[in-house]
């Protein structure tokens, strides 16, 4: 059995693609600048890439699990044409105040809880102590801290920066390539 691998966990909306608010329509899919190039550099450096995304719009009845899956499949297809492949995609469809009963609950997977990262770690044999999280909200970073991820990067392309987010971050990046540079420099 091989040694566990380092990973870079990526939030989806606001980090990989433009966040339009409950983003789920394929026609609204816009991959953010520098994402493909940065992901290729991380892969070349030996990181496994894993998407971990809260999708409370499913619980809220704003879109379906099938809508989420169509959007994600298209995102993965577009990035694959640019030589970017993910080892895993994990999502949380839950929210305590959801309208859809089967998804209306408090769970262990919704960030800031670490459930998705811990599940990915088990499934993909990841070394969390050598892994990084790139997110656009304090909840992304908190999930990483709780999972034992070594570095948390707050990317400024997503939600408005908050003092809470800046305090939780190991680094605040202006864009995805700056996040990539920091991870590569600090993982040596």
UniProtKB/TrEMBL annotation:
Return the protein name.
Answer: D,D-heptose 1,7-bisphosphate phosphatase
Recorded GO MF terms: D-glycero-beta-D-manno-heptose 1,7-bisphosphate 7-phosphatase activity
Q: Which CDD domains match?
A: HAD_HisB-N (cd07503)
InterPro entries hit by this protein: HAD-like_sf, HAD-SF_hydro_IIIA, HAD_sf, Heptose_bisP_phosphatase, Histidinol-phos
Q: What is its main location?
A: cytoplasm
Q: Which UniProt keywords apply?
A: Carbohydrate metabolism, Cytoplasm, Hydrolase, Metal-binding
EC?
Answer: 3.1.3.-
What Pfam family is a match, any one?
Hydrolase_like
Location of this chain's protein in the cell: Cytoplasm
Q: Which family does it belong to?
A: Belongs to the gmhB family.
Query: Does the keyword Hydrolase feature in the UniProt annotation?
Result: yes
Q: Where is the signal peptide?
A: none
Question: Which intervals of the chain form a coiled coil?
Answer: none
Is Hydrolase among this UniProt entry's keywords?
Answer: yes
Supply the enzyme class, top level: hydrolase
């Amino acid at each position: 059995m091989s040694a566990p691998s380092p990973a870079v966990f990526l939030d989806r909306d606001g980090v990989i693609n433009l966040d339009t608010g409950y983003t789920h329509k394929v026609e609204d899919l816009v991959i953010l600048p520098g994402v493909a190039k940065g992901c290729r550099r991380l892969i070349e450096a030996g990181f496994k890439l894993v998407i971990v995304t809260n999708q409370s719009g499913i619980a809220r009845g704003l879109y379906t699990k099938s809508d989420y899956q169509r959007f994600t499949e298209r995102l993965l297809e577009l990035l694959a044409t640019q030589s970017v492949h993910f080892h895993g995609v994990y999502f949380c469809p839950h929210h305590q105040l959801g309208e859809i009963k089967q998804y209306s609950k408090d769970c262990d997977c919704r960030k800031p809880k670490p459930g998705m990262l811990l599940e990915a770690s088990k499934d993909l044999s990841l070394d969390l102590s050598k892994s990084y999280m790139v997110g656009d909200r304090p909840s992304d970073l908190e999930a990483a801290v709780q999972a034992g991820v070594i570095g948390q990067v707050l990317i400024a392309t997503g939600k408005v920066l908050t003092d809470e987010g800046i305090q939780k971050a190991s680094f605040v990046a202006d864009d995805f390539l700056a996040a990539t540079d920091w991870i590569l420099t600090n993982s040596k």
